[in-house]
Amino acid sequence: LDLTHPVEDGIFDSGNFEQFLKEKVKVNGKTGNLGNTVHIERLKNKITVTSEKQFSKR
Q1: Distance between CA atoms of 16 and 26, rounded to whole angstroms?
Q2: Taking the CB of residue 14, how many other CB atoms lie within 10 A of it?
Q3: CA separation for the pair 38, 48 (Å, rounded)
Q4: Of 6, 17, 28, 31, whose CB neighbour count within 10 A is largest?
Q5: DSSP-assigned letter for residue 44
Q6: In the chain, what are the domain boundaries?
């Protein structure tokens, strides 16, 4: 996710969004259970979500 423009405009905080994703993404029906299946990384204003398992459609 490229969040450069919203962050530069001051309407979005990429650090808070990264933390939100880490807390709210569900793996095997449980939040905060990323383990080795899902990796969330932030590099400045870009967030990368990598999954070794298929995400649900919701």
Answers
A1: 18
A2: 19
A3: 10
A4: 17
A5: T
A6: 4-51
Q: Record the tokens describing residue 4, joined without a space.
A: 């450069």
**Are 1 and 45 in contact, with CB atoms under 8 Å apart?**
no
- Span 4-51 CATH architecture: 2-Layer Sandwich (3.30)
How far is residue 3's CA from residue 58's CA, in Å, rounded to a whole number? 22
User: From CA 13, how far away is CA 2, in angstroms rounded?
Assistant: 12
pTM for the structure as a whole: 0.79
Query: pLDDT tens across 12-53, in order?
Result: 999 999 999 999 888 888 888 888 889 999 999 999 999 888
Q: b or e along 31-52 (b: 16 or more beta carbons within 10 Å of the residue's beta carbon)?
A: eeebeeebebebeebebeeeee
